Amino acid sequence: QVQLVESGGGLVQPGGSLRLSCAASGIKFSSSAMGWYRQAPGKQRELVASITTGGIAINTDSAKGRFTISRDNANNTLYLQMNSLKLEDTGVYYCNKVSFLASWGQGTQVTVSS
Question: Which of 11, 76, 94, 98 could form a disulfide with 29 if both were Cys (CB 3.0 to 4.6 A apart)?
Answer without folding.
Answer: 76
